[in-house]
Amino acid sequence: MRQIIILAASVALLPVAAVAETELSFYLGAQSSPHSRVHVEGDRVIPDEDFLIGWEGRSFDPPPYYGLRVTNWSGANFGYGLDFVHAKVYAGDDDRRDAGYDTLEFTDGLNVLTLNGYYRWPQRFGQLTPYVGAGVGVAVPYVEVEKGGSSTFGYQYTGPAVTLIGGASYPLTDRVSVFGEYKGTYSMNEAELDSGGTLESNIVTNALNLGVSFSF
User: How far is the C-alpha of 28 from the C-alpha of 208, rounded, in Å?
Assistant: First the structure.
């Protein structure tokens, strides 16, 4: 996972010399996820099945929910950059047991890396700067599935993802600002099971984030 974070920062910093402002942002937050359907097919151990699961975010349990992004502002209003979020989802205990799973979660990250575009309104309300953003990218979660002797643990590329962001920032100094935002992410996940099949689920995460940005 360290390699993904380094890659995100390195790629986004390439055009620094050509832009007016670059921001490096870090954030924490409270993240939840609504129910989604889980579909298993073609496995040697787990029978084909389709069921509804209730997900839990548990944002502050280790490893916590967090994110970082690098944004290049090419002018007063428009920006673009890379955003990495380490979200996570646990199958609710009752739903997990009803489905017969010992473990069903993406908790060393429902990791999503997106390329985002942003629009901001500098100091629209005093020193407060509202902004919106959207992006597309990939999901690279840590898949954890155990049922009936089948065990799968590891990072996988599982499919595409999209994100929507809306928030506002407030400067503390010329180079440091704080921000609060809503961040919604939709990821399409098709994980390979070690016993031969696939587990699929399209997962939405909703998060309220607080963070700090450094401009240079």
Answer: 8
pLDDT tens readout for residues 28-87: 999 999 999 999 999 999 999 999 999 999 999 999 999 999 999 988 899 999 999 999
DSSP H or E run through 206: strand 198-215
Q: Helix count (H) and strand count (E) of the chain?
A: 2, 13
Q: What is the spatial distance between Cα 94 and Cα 35, in angstroms, rounded to a whole number?
A: 13
Q: Is residue 109 within 8 Å of residue 87, measured between CB atoms? A: yes
Give the model confidence (pLDDT) of 74-130 as tens digits.
Answer: 888 999 999 999 999 999 999 999 999 999 999 999 999 999 999 999 877 889 999
Domains and CATH numbers, the chain: 2-215 (2.40.160.20)
pTM above 0.85, yes or no: yes
**Among 124, 18, 33, residue whose Cα is nearest residue 74:** 18
Nearest alpha carbon to residue 209 among 184, 186, 172, 188 = 184
Closest Cα partner for 137 from 105, 185, 89? 185
Enclosing H/E stretch for 97: helix 93-98
Task: Give Cα separations from 150 to 89, 94, 96, 180 (angstroms).
Answer: 20, 20, 15, 42
